Amino acid sequence: MSLLNEYIQKEQQLKQLQEDLQRMEGDQRLKSELEFKERLEALMEEFGKMPADLIALFDPNVRSNDQKQMKSTDGRRKRRLKIYKNPHTGEVIETRGGNHKGLRGWKAEYGDDTVESWLVRMED
């Protein structure tokens, strides 16, 4: 794509975003949510509270969920499973680290950015 075409496309996207923003600014629901946020922040400041304090107050189970994710004995969280699919061969690689032999081979052959674009999904 030429630089001029890219510029025109970005300009059109900007125009669309500006129209969307203007539409949202007129929405009463947004105004209500912004007012709620401002009042809540003022109240938190008045009482010296942080967002984490509110989360702990309203959802005490959040802390226990964080601790459940820490499964290894050294206190480190388990890495997320990444699943890559090579569009050329159809081969699938599932790995929790970047040191997978096949993945390194792909990256050497096709480049890091290209292989990262083959990421199908990530799982915990």
UniProtKB/TrEMBL annotation:
InterPro entries named in the record: MvaT_DBD
Coiled coil (UniProt feature): 4-34
Keyword Coiled coil among record annotations: yes
Domain MvaT DNA-binding: start-end pairs: 82-118
Keywords linked to the UniProt accession: Coiled coil
CDD domains in the cross-refs: MvaT_DBD
UniProt protein name: DNA binding protein
